[in-house]
Write a structure and sequence with these properties.
With 166 residues, this protein is mainly alpha-helical. It has a domain at 44-127: Arc Repressor Mutant, subunit A. It is 70% helix and 9% strand. Helix 3 packs across helix 6.
């Protein structure tokens, strides 16, 4: 049996591409199912687009409405409504765009970051009972998986920022 460390340390061979594709697809589906389940258990009625928008702003920093809509995968009119609600909640604020004095950027506020963290904590708390029986090795494998995914996501974010000239 191949260990997690051996699998992660060797580059993917062409013959393994199909297995990698299948595993990545399964991971995306499982993570979406897990998120939906946790959200349902918390009973929170806030739109997932709200949390996604706050998360985008927290990780990528202030951005214009159109870019935020694209990053959050919603239409610009939908993002306008989301931002309006977030401004009313004081979870985001509009700030002057340093590149164009006529334009605005949207930025997460401290209150918005606190709300996002509370939401993430509620999701985690909701899932703990489902995973409380994990062995140390299973928990270590999950931690390793999280680190690999986070590092790839950070590389992707850095590459996107470089292309955008940020």
């Amino acid at each position: 049996m191949v260990s997690v460390n051996e699998t992660l340390s060797s580059p993917t061979r062409a013959a393994d591409t199909a297995q990698l594709r299948q595993t990545l697809g399964d991971l995306v589906v499982a993570s979406h199912r897990l998120t939906r389940l946790a959200a349902r258990v918390t009973g929170n009625t806030e739109s997932p687009a709200t949390w996604r928008t706050l998360s985008v702003l927290q990780s990528a920093g202030p951005m214009r409405l159109g870019e935020l809509a694209a990053q959050s995968r919603v239409s610009q009119p939908t993002m306008t409504k989301i931002v309006r609600n977030l401004v009313e909640s004081e979870w985001v604020k509009r700030i002057a765009d340093t590149d164009d004095a006529r334009a605005w950027q949207i930025a997460i506020t401290a209150r918005g970051a606190e709300a996002l963290q509370a939401w993430r904590d509620a999701l985690s708390d909701a899932l703990v009972p489902m995973f409380a029986d994990l062995t140390e090795d299973e928990l270590a494998a999950m931690r390793c998986t999280v680190e690999v995914i986070a590092s790839r996501a950070e590389l992707s974010t850095a590459a996107s920022a470089a292309v955008a000239g940020r």
